[in-house]
Amino acid sequence: MSENDGMEKNDAQHIGTATSNQSVAVNLMNEQGRKISVLTRPLTYAEFIAKQTARMMAVMEFRAKQGLFNGGCPRLGYDINYDKNCIVPNRAEVPVVKRIFDTYLKLESLNDTAIALNAKGYRTKYFISKAGLKRGGKKFDGKSIRRILSDAVYTGKVKYNAIIYDGVHKAIISSSLFATVQERLTIKSKQKTCGHQER
């Protein structure tokens, strides 16, 4: 058996004991270039998952600070450019998004806005996932309308952990219109809490 075969076998044994509490010797080189042995405990599965999750969250936070798309389903009004990892406006859908915001301000009702959009033949974002699955293309309801109205991505922003960052993508809704709609949503939510039902 060669020295490399022996190292691979030791690595496999190390991985296989990742859920044990035993310590294993790891050969390292000190600053003087001399080989030293350090006792280290293999990560448990829970520790490994926690470490990977923390790493992933750090990457997502970094991307958000850079204004980059952080994954997830494409929004109505945008398409995903997977080559550049960003979103770009969909010219055919941008007018629909603007109509949703304008209609809500006129009707002041999530459900009535959904009914009005459905009556015009508009539907939620239709797309095909990376796995080849067909998604969306359904009728709007109050929840889907609220998600669109509350999404800061339409103002050229990205959101991560409740923090808003400037995005690299183009806005399709003005900040003033978005702010006006948020105020109206807040007022309607308070009215609902006080007993007034959303229509």
Q: Can you walk through the features of this model?
A:
The chain folds into two domains: 3-42, no CATH class; 59-193, Putative Large Serine Recombinase, Chain B, Domain 2 (Hect, E3 ligase catalytic domain fold, Alpha-Beta Complex). Residues 3-23 have low confidence and may be disordered. The protein starts with a helix and ends in a 6-residue tail after the last helix. It has helices at 3-16, 45-65, 94-107, 110-119, 142-149, 175-193, and strands at 24-29, 35-40, 78-81, 86-89, 127-128, 134-135, 157-160, 163-166. Strand 7 and strand 8 (163-166) form a beta hairpin. The chain has 199 residues and is of the alpha+beta class. The strands form four sheets. A two-stranded antiparallel sheet has the order 1-2. A two-stranded antiparallel ribbon has the order 3-4. The chain has a two-stranded antiparallel sheet with strand order 5-6. The longest helix has 21 residues, at 45-65. The chain has six helices and eight strands; from the N terminus they run αββαββααββαββα.
